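Margin note from the TA: students keep mixing up input and output lines. Inputs are the sequences; the output is the structure of the whole complex. Example:
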Amino acid sequence: MPHMRNCQTRVRNYVLSKPIEPNSFKTGPDEEGHFGIFGGRYVAETLMPLILDLEKHYTAAKKDPSFQAEVDYLNKHYTGRPSPLYFAESLTEELGGAKIYFKRDELNHTGSHKINNCLGQILLAKRMGKTRIIAETGAGQHGVAAATVAAKFGFPCVVYMGKTDVERQSPNVFRMRLLGAEIVPVTAGAGTLKDAMNEALRDWVTNVEDTYYLIGTAAGPHPYPELVRDFQSVIGTECKEQMLEAEGRLPDMLVASVGGGSNAIGLFHPFLDDKEVEIIGVEAGGRGLEGEEHCASLSAGKPGVLHGNRTFLLQDDDGQILEGHSISAGLDYPGIGPEHSYLRDTGRVEYVPIMDTEALEAFQLLCRTEGIIPALEPSHALAEVVKRAPKMSKDKIIVMNLCGRGDKDVFTVGKALGVDMETE
Amino acid sequence: MKTRIDTRFEALKVEGRPGLVTFIMAGDPNMEASQEILNGLPAAGADLIEIGMPFSDPMADGPSIQLAGQRALKGGQTLAKTLAMVANFRKTDSETPIILMGYYNPIYIYGNEKFLKDASDAGVDGLIIVDLPPEADHELCIPAMDHGINFIRLATPTTDANRLPKVLENTSGFLYYVSITGITGAAAPDPDRVAKAVSAIKQKTDIPVAVGFGVKTAQQAADIGKGADAVVVGSALVSVILDNLDEAGNPKAGTTKAVLDLVSDLASGVQSVKHG
């Protein structure tokens, strides 16, 4: 079996040398779901037939023009796509360097990019004849988007959410309930996104016949990282067209925040082979990378296997997964989608951490300069833009993915800034 | 190469009864108590022993085994300590097969080759790694065989006729039939349905088939054992430990005895069965 041996060699070589730069960064994953050494299908046997079945259906759906047509129709009429590519003139002036554009996925129905993926996956679930939807959520943005599409298509929906997140994201919890979803608070571990994902997997392994697991980010076992990326790539594809129309050329730099990494891969993927475009992913640096209170798996983690894929993880010397910390519930995950691990290793994308405090400052800056309240997740990306734009000349162009709006975060931000909203 | 697992199943065949496979979590509730329980298992009637390697994110386990893993990790259990437990056990028992069960990441971080060598040196006979399906056999399953360690695969109700050959391909020692779709410690399986599934598997392979997930009592063990080469009990044993902890999480006097008493009871269940 030459393929297997090849794989094994690659795994071993990981320590010895960085992978050779490929001709294209867009060819992954391979048939086994690998991006370089990352990705794969590391799941319990009970789930193997299910993910093989999902892969079969997704492959067929991709080739079916009527499937794509339905996705396109819903993207346009339900979500409101294309989202604008907006020139942030005041912020550009304020920072005094490169021109800054926002890809405004925060204007989507449900308030973030998560809906792009949920629409694609719910159509897939329908096509597969599944009758029940389960999902995990951190900040609740994916949970809201999943509950939304489940309501629209008439599926019962169970959302697993860490207990800590249920408490700090109560507006989204209520939103999901209004949409008819059942919320199951997860108390295992620290009660955040990874624990919610474990519990969703336990549900799936129990209810294999009728249940579709609607994963919220470009991670998990193959084919999830690929299909979530494909559904999110509408962001980058639109952005490319809009940028050519606005400026007659591609941007010099793309910036996006990464938790699991779905908004980032959605923006990045269509640009991966445009070598002149510099690409930056921004991780949650939390309270700093020295301790364990951050979620910067690419900056401070190492490769391991969790939730069905090999990828960079925050873990201790015994291979136990750490909980991490971020002010942003949506970035509070100790892993990262496997394609990002591959893009980091090949050097195509640079990943940097941004601290809680920097994100909070950027959040307020955007409110003041552009009249936009961003979510805390893209506030991390914005903090990196704030660092870079002034050092670039005025003829350079940065596009940042403004992937979510901040209504859900006002309480968290208020608390961090010492404002008691009850008495204001 | 014949392993302790092969030898034990041959002996059970001669006796004409199903074996009892007992699961405990390494380091639960602490290393000393866990070692004491482990050392007592063969005399209490365990024919084979599965030892859980605790992991922070046990995706296929129910609450009992999740909590056991958390207790062990809180007590400072590591993969190296788990291997040391096996080595200690081997000082007094050179025959009872030991199977380590868990998730891939701690092994991957320990280093696959180093782990296999150390496990083999410690006296480990088999591995059950929940999140390594046959598609990943090149990573650990095939190297394990080179070290004389059986790689035991799980088959489930979702393993249909198309999938079964793939599951059986590199399985050795025995096949672990998971009697329900779900997590460990869930509802009891239906013995008739299980017997049918096992006999369907047996048409495709000569290796022994052990059945687990949801078995809690001697009667269930006997019922399931009629149609299987061995019965696995895990969550029920682990729950006895939980029931015997004091408020500080330390085992009360008599915890080991309570666990071993249940093992003896379960053993009487499988020993009452005569395979035709």
